[in-house]
Amino acid sequence: MGSSHIGMVVVGLGRAGRARVRDLAASAHFRLAGVVSRRPEHATVSWADALADPAVGAVAICTENALHERQAREALAAGKHVLVEYPLCLSSSAGLALFALADRAGRRLHVEHIELLGSGYRELRAEVRRLGALREASLRSRGPSEGWIGDPSRAGFPSFSGIARLHRLVDLFGPLEVREAALEGGATGFTLRARLCDARGAPIEWVEERRPGLARGASIRFALENGVITAVPARKGEPLFAIDLERFGEEVGGRRESAEDRARELHCLELAAEIERRCG
Ligand code: NAD
């Protein structure tokens, strides 16, 4: 590992955080400089000491959703580059403020969206381009609601906790508009139904369902001018978190522009906020 590797502290040692620690061992850009954890047996540094340490150049925020905004703000204010697992934050105004802070600080703010990085997804995107204009689309996602993910005060409103689905839809079909949205459910899970449309008015349905014990899964149906797509090509075992980490490294090193990612991020946050507003 070269001395040019930037020290990175990982905050939150759950599934995403453990993937970050694993991938740092082979990173071309970063080295693990510490772990911030609520469990003393895993913590090697406190959050305050990590932010104060000039040897720490970057942080990876892998905690539950409601903590991302504050931790990203504090890290940027301390002069660190920030990689944050999605969602960046739980309102569109907070997203704008965080990117503005990153610009003022001269630091990179990168939001993980591994759902866009897999080869199966890239094949799907190429097929969507090949088959012409959208006629109508449906994307349904389901999964369990145990733990913090089932608690909106920790996970955020479902349009934010499920914002990865909006990123796929915007990446595939361009800027979208919200037409209608409704949320059913309560303490034992929820179903969010949103009706969106693309710039030409083609309807897009997004359904997000979470219940205790519900098996994780997703289904799509995209009807395009020249064909219908009903599945994302399956791929297993791709190192998506590692690919994301190296993209962040290229951004920090000035070798990758991220203006497009930022525009999509802010647009998806606006869509998520509008969906929440319409469910209110
Ligand atoms: P998780 O529950 O497995 O991990 C969250 C971890 O954060 C826990 O270990 C918890 O103890 C820790 N934590 C909470 N508050 C903390 C604090 N103040 N300081 C230090 N640690 C704290 O959840 P996860 O699946 O790893 O998800 C974490 C984030 O990553 C979420 O925002 C999620 O949306 C995102 N994400 C996860 C995946 C995945 O495949 N798991 C994929 C994409 C994005």
Quick structural overview:
The protein has 280 residues and is of the alpha/beta class. The protein contains 10 helices and 11 strands.
- What is the terminal separation in angstroms? 51 Å
Poorly predicted regions:
none
Largest sheet geometry: 6 strands, mixed
Q: Write out the strand line-up for the largest beta sheet, numbering strands in chain order.
A: 7-8-9-6-10-11
Task: Please give the count of helices.
Answer: 10
Mean pLDDT: 96
Assembly category? single chain
- The portion of residues assigned to helices is 25-40%
Strand content: 25-35%
> What ligands does this structure carry?
nicotinamide-adenine-dinucleotide
Care to count the β-strands?
11
SSE-based structural type: alpha/beta
Polypeptide structure, described:
With 280 residues, the chain is of the alpha/beta class. The protein contains ten helices and eleven strands. The protein has helices spanning 15-24, 47-52, 68-77, 92-105, 119-130, 152-155, 158-161, 163-173, 240-252, 259-279; strands spanning 6-11, 30-36, 56-61, 81-85, 109-112, 134-143, 177-186, 189-197, 203-210, 217-224, 227-229. It has a six-stranded mixed sheet, covered by helices on one side. Strands 2-1-3-4-5 form a five-stranded parallel sheet, with helices on both faces. Strand 3 (56-61), helix 3 (68-77) and strand 4 form a beta-alpha-beta unit. Helix 3 runs parallel beside helix 4 (92-105), helix 4 (92-105) packs antiparallel against helix 10 and helix 8 packs across helix 10 (259-279). The chain starts with 5 loop residues before the first strand and ends with a helix. The mean pLDDT is 96. Nicotinamide-adenine-dinucleotide (NAD) binds next to helix 1. Nicotinamide-adenine-dinucleotide binds at residues 11-17, 36-38, 62-65, 67, 85-86, 112, 114.
